[in-house]
Design brief:
Keywords: Receptor, Signal. With about 325 residues, the protein is α/β, with parallel strands linked by helices. The protein is about 40% helix and about 20% strand. Helix 1 packs across helix 8 and helix 3 crosses helix 10. The chain binds D-malate (MLT).
Length: about 325
Amino acid sequence: AATFGAAAQEYPSKDKTVTIVVPFAAGGPTDRVARDLAEALRKPLGANVVVDNTAGAGSSIGAARVARAAPDGYTLLLNHIGMSTMPALYRKLAFSVPNDFEYLGMVNDVPMTLIARPTMAANNYKELSAWLAQNKGKINLGNAGLGSASHLCGLMFQSAVQIDMTPVPYKGTAPAITDLIGGQIDLLCDQTTNTSGQIEAKKVKAYAVTTQKRLTTPLLKDLPTLAESGLKNFEVTIWHGLYGPKGTPPDIAKKINDALKVALKDPDFIKKQEGLGAVVVTDKRVEPAEHKKFVAAEIDKWTAVIKAAGTYAD
Ligand code: MLT
C-alpha cells in the first residue's frame, strides 16, 4: 500500500548535503580528521559530505549546534575527548553528554606532543623542565579553549610538574600553533595530526609524546614519552567519534554507521591518518552502543582528573 502523508524520504537524498560540523577552527587536528573522513564517507554513504567549522568554547558551541539540529542525518558532529571533559568544566552546557547525542561510531586515537616555540633554548625534556622551573609565572601555554584536548593535556602537564602556566585560548590549535611558531606563546600540547608537519619542518621544538609507549612513525619514534621523562603515569590519547542529534531514526543512524565502517577500512584514509601518527579504530568502539559506553566511562575518568587538577569554568 502507498505510504500516506509525506512518503518516508530515502536517506540520503541526492539533492541534500551531509554536513560534518567541526567544533574547532579550520586547519587544526579535529578539522584534519573530519576532512579525511568526509572524503572516505562520500562513496559508502552515497552522499555529498562536507565539513563546516563552528568553533569556540572548547568545542561546546559546535556540539550545541548539532545537539539542536534536526535529527535527520544531515547534520553530524565530529568531536573528540572534549565530549567527556565538557561536563566537568562547564556548568551551563546547552546540552547533556552522553544523552543528547546519537552515537554513530568512533574514528581514531591520536597521540599528543609537547612542543615549544622554535626559539626555546632547551634541547630536550630535561633542559625544558629546568627552564620551566626558572620561568615560573612567565610561561604562556596555548590551548583551544576549556575542554579542548590541548587544554586537558595542559592541565595534566601543569599538575604533573606543579607549575602554573598562563593559559592562552584560541578557537583551535591551528591558530595556536601559528602563534607558537611566531613566538607569541611558549608551549603547546597538541595532537600529532597537527604537529607532525611542523616538527618535521623544524618550525617548532618537540620534547615528548603523551602516550605511555613511544610512537612508531619514523618522524616521532625518537621522541621520549613524558612518562619516561619523569612524569610516570602521564598518558593522554585523543579519541574522535561521530555523532548526530538525539532522535536520529535508527535506520539513518545504521546507514551512517555502516558507511563509517567502510570508510575506516579505506586504505587511503588509513594511510593519511597513520602518516600523521593517528591510529584508526578497528575495535568494537566503532559500534554505536560501545561508542556510547566508552564516552560515558571517559566522562567519569576525566572528571576525576580535572577535579584533581582543580580547574573549573562557568
Ligand atoms: C584541541 O586542542 O582540542 C584540538 O586540537 C583543537 C583543534 O582541533 O583545533
